[in-house]
Design a protein that fits this description.
The chain has helices spanning 10-21, 30-38, 53-67, 74-88, 98-109, 115-131, and strands spanning 43-44, 47-48. The longest helix is centred in the C-terminal third of the chain and has 17 residues, at 115-131. The protein is mainly alpha-helical. It is globular and about 40 Å long. Strands 1-2 form a two-stranded antiparallel ribbon. The chain has one domain (10-41, 49-131): Four Helix Bundle (Hemerythrin (Met), subunit A) (Up-down Bundle). It has six helices and two strands, in the order ααββαααα.
């Protein structure tokens, strides 16, 4: 039996942005924020486009960082959203070193990583967090 995945929606992302960046959050395009929230739930031909929580978190991080729904703070919100998503789904990465987070987010921002690469890195971060 697999557990149901808990997703973040656009309102959740707005609340995270509000807490992270102030009220009102610096939204540039609400549609892009909504699209980022929806991407982890995407499916094709009846199959999840992102089959596990790490690829779903990777898709969320990638969408926010790459598509710039905010005027400022996209990298920070992208990481926070991915970390909260993983936490909600029992895969905390909260103890990961800041340098590792920075390296991942900057690699995403420079288009150096695919969603699959991001997912693999998030899985490694989760496994390292378990060991610490």
């Amino acid at each position: 039996m697999t557990l149901a995945v808990e997703y973040l929606d656009a309102e959740d992302l707005l609340e995270l942005a509000r807490r992270l960046l102030g009220d009102p959050p610096p939204v540039r395009d609400l549609g892009l924020l909504g699209a980022a929230a929806a991407r982890p739930q995407a499916s094709a031909f009846g199959e999840d486009a992102y089959p596990d929580i790490y690829s779903k978190a990777g898709a969320l991080l990638h969408s926010i960082v790459s598509n710039h729904p905010l005027v400022d703070g996209n990298k920070r919100l992208g990481w926070l959203a991915a970390a909260v998503f993983l936490e909600l789904n029992a895969a905390s990465v909260s103890s990961v070193a800041n340098d590792d987070v920075y390296d991942l987010v900057m690699a995403v921002a420079t288009a150096a990583l695919s969603v699959e690469d991001i997912a693999g890195t998030l899985l490694l971060m989760y496994e390292q967090a378990l060991d610490s």
